[in-house]
Amino acid sequence: MRQALLMLLLLAAPFAAQAAEAPPVTVTVADPFLELHTGPGRGYPITQVVPRDEQVDVLKRRTDWFKVRDARGREGWVHISQMAATLTPSGAPLPIDDPSREQFGEHRREIGVLAGDFEGANVITIYGAYAFNPHLAAELRVSQLLGSFSDGQMFAAGLSHVFRPDWRVQPFVSIGTGALRISPKGTLVQTPDRTDQLAYVGAGFKAYLARRFILRGEYNKYVVFTSRDDNEEADEWKLGFAFFF
Amino acid sequence: MEARIRILLLTGAVALAGCASTRTATESPGPSATGDGARESTSVITPEVERREVKPPRIDTENWEVGAYVGSLSVEDFEVNIVYGGRLAYHISEDFFAEGIYGTADAGISSYERLSGSAPLLTDSERKFKYYSLGFGWNVLPGEVFLGGERAYNSAVYLTAGVGNTTFAGDDRFTVTLGAGARVLIKDWLAAHLDVRDHILEVDVVGTNKQTHNFEATISLSAFF
User: Fold this and answer.
1) Structural domains in chain B, sorted by start
2) Fewer CB within 10 Å, N side or C side of chain B?
3) pLDDT at residue B32, rounded to an integer
């Protein structure tokens, strides 16, 4: 575990180093003035203002707040709405990556976490999706099932189709295949683990919340191809959050 | 008749092509003459504009946070023990963040095992308490803290909720984790945290399947990147 922590810190180190090396971006104030807050939040007091035509260095960005330093060395945090009205040395408005409602539906990648019920067992799913176009996306899902009598892991790959990518709440359908590994709990029953192939169809919705943030709910119907005479069917309901980028 | 009109039109087109460098006449019977004319005229009108590469400025975004924590975890019925863990968070807005945590602790000996003197309930490997949780946090009380009269640090008190899994007593157990914490930013990129979490899960070791609350208090350092 200690090695794991060290690894984490080592992984984080290059990012910190990179941040220090990048030269700051300089912009010119185009609004009557720029308000500098003491912290990256709307509640932090404004202690300084930078008047029009003065230049500031943009040091970093955290969520919707930009840390800037003016010519006199004063530092503070500026909201994105005011930063959007500053000009770069070429005279153009500062291009700011501001994920918005318009980008939802146009996005390529999506990563999320869902939790819910799989035929009476708790299920936690991490999924990633890559969209070929606004309608069609490929999805990978990895799930952990935690039931009273057995646990399991599920891995599935499939396609999902969004009917109306321009809506704020987007209904979708999905289809795919994968594998399910079930391990009965040792204290209750002594049966071996088994791994079976499965297929699913599903339907759900994706709702835009804010920034890169989506609320996602879905229902899936699974067919598990067991080695016994009958195939097993399972219902799954899940709700969770996702980011798009 | 039609063929003659076509030839007439084509001849006209060839003549035009020579002057205006239109490329509509490429099917004409005299391609060599047309081609030369076109080349000459393009060299006259092609403006020599140097393209300027405009690179969008790269602003360093620091929405990710990675950290490590240490503290004590009370495993219900199995003593209070040292817990180590790691945490990764993504700040979605000034109010909300998503986070994943992973922690591990060694559970102690239950009072039943100690008093009865019977065989231990769990093997050493089953006594490992490992959990992960994926969830969200809300910066409910953002603010500043002061150290003396000279220094002010940004801070926040936040609430978290997540779902995940705990591996304990030889089984995986669905876990709901609720917590509250305080974060003080020592530097813009470095934060110190004080966290309290409750890992709620069902454990069937002591006879019945009962819901257990496993409280944890940790301190941590995290870096924004």
Assistant:
1) 2-45 (no CATH), 64-224 (2.40.160.20)
2) N
3) 47
